[in-house]
Amino acid sequence: MPTPGALLDRALALTALCERPDLHRRLTRVKQRVEAPSVRVLVVGEPKQGKSSLVNALVGAPVCPVADDVATTVPTVVRSGESPRAELLLAGAAAGDDGGGTTTRLPVPIETVAARVTGTAAEGVLQAEVELPRRLLADGLELVDTAGVGGVGAAHSPTTIDLLPSADAVLFVSDASQEFTAPELAFLTQAAALCPTVVCVLTKTDACPDWRRIAELDRAHLHAAEVPAEVLPVSATLGVLALTTQDRELQEESGIGALARYLRREVVERAEALSRRALVHDLSSVAEHLALAVRTELRGLEDPDGREELVGELEEARVAVEELRRRSSRWQQTLADGVTDLLADIDHDLRDRSRVVTREAEEAIDAGDPGPAWRELAEWLDQCIALAVADSFVWAEQRSQFLAEQVIGQFTADSGTALPELTVGSAAEALETLVDLPAIDSGALPLRERVLIGLRGSYTGVLMTGLVTSLAGLAIINPFSLAAGVLMGRRAYRDDKAQRLSRRQSEAKSIVRRHLDEVVFQVGKQLKDRLRLVQRTLRDTITDTVDEMSQSLADAVKAAQRASRSATAERDAQVRAVRQRLAELDRLARDVRSLEPGLTGGTR
Amino acid sequence: MTAPAEEDPVEQVRALLGEALEVYADEPAAASRLSAVRQRMDEPLRIALVGRVKAGKSTLLDALVGARLAPTDAGECTRVVTVYRYGRIPKVVLHDTAGTSRVLPARRVGGGLRLDLGGSAPEDVAQVVVEWPAPELEAATLVDSPGLASLSTDASDRTTSFLEAGDGVPGVDAVLYLTRHLQPDDVAALTSFQAAAAAAGRHTATLTVLSRADEVGGARLDALQAAAAVARRMSADPAIAAVTSAVVPVAGLLALGARTLRHGDVVALRALAAADRTAVAAMLLTTDRFLRAEAPVEVSPTVRAGLLERLGLFGVRLAVALVHAGIGDAATLADELLRRSGLPELQRLLQVHFTGRGRQLRVAAALQVVGDLLRTSPRPGTEGLAEAVERIRLAAVDVDELALLARLRAADDLLPPGLRAEAQRLLGAEGTAAASRLGLSGDGSAEELRGAAQDAVARWRQVTTDPALDRPATDAADVVLASCEALLTGLGRAPALRT
Predict the structure, then answer these.
(1) Do B199 and A368 touch (CB under 8 A)?
(2) E strands within B75-152?
(3) Which residue of B215, B286, B308 is in closest CB contact with A235?
(4) What is the distance between the alpha carbons of residues B433 and B453, in angstroms, rounded to a whole number?
(5) Considering all CA atoms of chain B, what is the largest pairwise distance in Å, rounded to the nearest integer?
(6) Higher pLDDT, A48 or B102
(7) Which of B406, B363, B251 is nearest to B318 (CA)?
(8) CATH fold of A37-254, please?
(9) DSSP 8-state symbol, A118
(10) Residues A253, B282: contact at Cβ < 8 Å?
(11) Is residue A178 less than 8 Å (CB to CB) from chain B?
(12) Is the pLDDT reported for residue B139 higher than 70?
């Protein structure tokens, strides 16, 4: 079977030969994607459940810090590399940098990387990146130990949730000493909505005699919550011991081997199958586009009398495509309407959520003196907002996916009748490009925000963490903290004078309202930006498709005309050359079809 | 601090409550609050064990009592609020939400109790009251509560509503907060206890227990030392110190196992220690291996399962290591296991923070309830009562002490940082004995204590007149000064009275 790389090269050569730079560009992008596959697996869970130990056991090296206290405050990314190597991503650090500048990469010896991201040594470190030559990682698997941002409690979850859409799988870590708690299951439900594969890993089975009971209980909870996730029991301790003693039996007992196999089978191979399907789609559509012109030329050459009719047919099709492009057709309507609706809905949704929070906060303020309890109130508010924003985000994400499906569906319906010979591609494939929303270049952000991201996340992640911390009174530029300072000054003494109390209450309420307005404005803006990105991506994808169609048809018309002009003597030679090219294209199309995952046992 | 018997504030408060009950007899809500408070005056302190689901609350309760009373299980188990109090004969009474109560059979199983709701659904049960003849329960009534953040939200709600206990009579006097690892959510929970108590001017003390400490670091032999290090770091964190009196690691299962260690257990442990060390180490690698049918030692699988259930994997590892180290006899082994479990330290802290202050806490709570009532629904003729409240409050320095302690915890800028720690100590945050208040070791002579007390009086008298301090701070300093003076008076009464 030909390799995807070889096929891509053949197709690239053919696009160059047929003078189709647009298709050449498209294939070059595909090539880049195929050459650097990346399957990102987030390792998440409450603190002290054994996330870092699990990553260490999976890759067989102590690259993530493990300690009795909270160890990791910085996420660690472990991916494949030719030789063991570690790098720290530092904030600022360049001389004279005032905090608005770039990030620096600092290579460190791999043995020290765990120590460098622990405790005070971790200051200024945004992320650790480790490369290891491991079979498990060879196919682009990338493990992200989300310690530090990986909590599933209200304060942490927005950041983690924000990472989910960019992940191919989530390993949810919970130890065998107890069944799932309410926040854990809530997180799992959200994760299952945003990420294709969620696996629950039950850790520390060596020290918990009742792990089988706990696993059963957890499966029952997952079933009740309709979360389609497996529960895999493992013992990282045994896994490491098995590695040092080279004990196969122990290795099996630890469950680490089973987990690695599961990751390969369900995550890596599934991601491969998906990317292969996208590749097959790209290649066969390019082959079809190229074949259209070649086949037309051949028909023109072989049947000179019918060419008027042929050119007429082609012109008709071309007009139809031009129409499709020019006319504000239905897919654009669907997109525009959908985006407008969604923008309004996002606004309404956010305002609704913020109203609920405001009401609760006002009740709390009325119930007592906001002065002494201000810090607690601010923390509570902070958590409520984080939770509301996370919900809003999940909801907006699902809505935009749904919109994308509708738009693609509409476009397929619109164009399907006009252009029977060219396939457009399914919504699922177009969505693949959407799921990979462009990651933030962490270098371009001001330091204040960057320190908070930790991981490459999307804009909302930055914003939410920014809010979470600024609420705690960290940011001086936040208008909220200026007014809050006035209150803080007084909170020491319980003042029972009714007049001052009520003034303080109304002041507190207005601060809360003002702050929530700001939150709604900022989050709304970020969600809208994200939606606009979805809109732009969709529009560009579809416009490109139309452009390609139009170009292919124009080429076909030209080819037919060229065929009609050529003299009889040259015709035979031309027919031969064109036939040869067509045969080459057919071979390519056939080879591409043999890549179909359906034939090689892929999933879904 | 000690007032003459005829001025005993407890007696005075009792009389006050009696009078108030007469005045408010026609107001059922007020009357029930007052009679609840009066009833509590005669009861031991109530200490609630609160924490996340599966934090080990029931196991710790059993360890504190020294008997298996609270039902425990691998899954979530405690679903109703259960009060364990002293009684000469075992008795279980179930109070349901409809207001009726019935006696349940108290079945003794192996020195413990098998609790059975007798067919009642947990959501219909308001609380279960267990009476048990354990001397530990005479000092304090213990309350087991369903875990917070439970998947069955009803259970969590029952805990929350019990703690808040609506009508102004707090369900508990003190909270033992259990957590396996102190997370932001836990700090928030502790803060809310503190805030609720401080808002009511009440001093609800909280001790934080790092529970299941034997599971730290995968039940390594030094797990408890590691847990102690974590606890120390947490105690030093100002954010945590603000909401809890202390953080202590306790391995509840180990403590309970040690307190109920059987002869058969010791024999089995000795057999394990006597066998080939490598083989036993391999057995102790995982619980699954320890329970395998075939084993290189003459200890039957059933006995091994019993050991694991009662001591936990860490407990077995530790006990075997202790026997290796030469501790062979059952009593010494049990003592050593108990000492290492961290339970004795927790018991000491409970004494210092809660039970040693029982009288104070009760008087303060009662005055608070009566004072609130008089303010919110004054009646003709209650002026006398209000005066009595004020009189008792003035006479009992410790009531002000408690209120100030509560406020010092809630507001970190009431006193300048340099004075705050000393003020808390003098107010009795680390124990109400003279030496603890003065920060001296217990064996100081009376002369030394008096000298230190005199210094404290002089220092705080200066603070009260410090022009740089604002009014709230000088008011607080007045309370501290009063405590110092009372302390000096108490000491001065000893050998030679000096002025």
Answers:
(1) yes
(2) 82-86, 91-96, 101-104, 107-109, 112-114, 125-132, 140-144
(3) B286
(4) 12
(5) 84
(6) B102
(7) B251
(8) Rossmann fold (3.40.50)
(9) B
(10) no
(11) yes
(12) yes
Element (H, E) at A143: strand A141-145
Distance CA A177, CA A210 (A): 8
% of chain B beyond a pLDDT of 90: 13
Q: Does A372 touch chain B (CB under 8 A)?
A: yes
A27/B19 Cα distance (integer angstroms) = 92
Integer-rounded Cα Rg, in Å, for chain B is: 25
Residue B166 clears pLDDT 50, i.e. is over it: no
- Amino acid letter at B293? A
User: B202, B286, B368: which to substitute to probe chain A, counting the most A Cβ within 10 Å?
Assistant: B286
CATH of domain B45-251: 3.40.50.300
- Among residues B185, B160, B155, the alpha carbon closest in space to that of B175 is found at B160
Strand-pair partners of B246 = B207
Question: In this structure, what token pair is assigned to residue B219?
Answer: 């039940």
What's residue A72's pLDDT?
Answer: 62
Contacts of B314 (CB under 8 A, 6+ apart): A207, B214, B215, B219, B221, B223, B251, B254
Which alpha helices (DSSP H) does B275-342 contain, by range? 277-283, 287-291, 301-324, 330-341
Q: Which two tokens stand for residue A171?
A: 């390993």
**CA-derived radius of gyration, chain A:** 29
The segments of chain A whose pLDDT lies below 70 read 1, 70-73, 91-102, 119-123, 147-166, 194, 304, 307, 324-329, 368-377, 379-380, 382-384, 386-387, 389-391, 393-394, 397, 412-501, 522, 526, 530, 563-569, 597-604
- A207·B195 Cβ contact <8 A: no
| Sequence-ordered list of residues with C-beta below 8 angstroms from that of A600, at least 6 positions apart, any chain | none
pLDDT at residue B165 above 60?
no
B34: pLDDT strictly greater than 80: yes
Instruction: Decide: A460 and A519 in contact? Cβ < 8 Å.
Output: no
**pLDDT at res. B63:** 92
DSSP run (H or E) holding A452 = helix A447-453
Q: Is the ipTM of this complex over 0.95?
A: no
Q: For residue A437, what pLDDT is reported?
A: 29
Q: Is the dihedral of CA A550, A552, A553, A559 positive or negative?
A: positive
The pair phi, psi for residue A302, each rounded to 5°, is -80, -30
Measured between alpha carbons, how far is A290 from A582 in angstroms, rounded to an integer? 9
Q: How many angstroms separate the CA atoms of B475 and B198, rounded? A: 17
CA distance A278 to A432: 8
- Chain A neighbors of B227, CB-CB under 8 A: 68
Please tell me the number of Cα atoms within 13 Å of B48 on its side-chain side: 26
Task: Determine, for residues A177 and B227 on separate chains, whether the beta-carbon distance falls below 8 Å.
Answer: no
Report whether pLDDT(B89) > 80. yes
Whole-structure pTM over 0.80, yes or no? Answer: no
DSSP string, A212-272: HHHHHHHHHHHHHTT---EEEE--HHHHHHHHHHT-HHHHHHHSHHHHHHHIIIIIIHHHH
Q: Is the dihedral of CA B104, B108, B111, B116 positive or negative?
A: negative
Residues with Cβ within 8 Å of B80's Cβ and at least 6 positions away in sequence, in order, are B117, B122, B125, B127, B128, B146, B155, B158
Residue B341 tokens, joined? 């479990």
Q: Measured between CB atoms, does A204 come within 8 Å of chain B?
A: yes
Q: Say yes or no: A46 contacts chain B, CB-CB below 8 A.
A: yes
Q: Which residues of B251-274 are buried (b: 16+ CB within 10 A; e: fewer)?
A: bbbbbbbbbbbbeebbebbbbbbe
Buried-exposed string A441-465: b where 16+ CB fall within 10 A, e elsewhere: ebeebebbbbbbbbbbbbbbbbbbb
Sheet holding A85-91, edge to edge: A103-108, A85-91, A125-132, A76-80, A141-145, A39-44, A169-175, A197-203, A230-233
CA dist., res. A474 & res. A383, Å (int): 16
Phi and psi at A371, nearest 5°, equal -60, -65
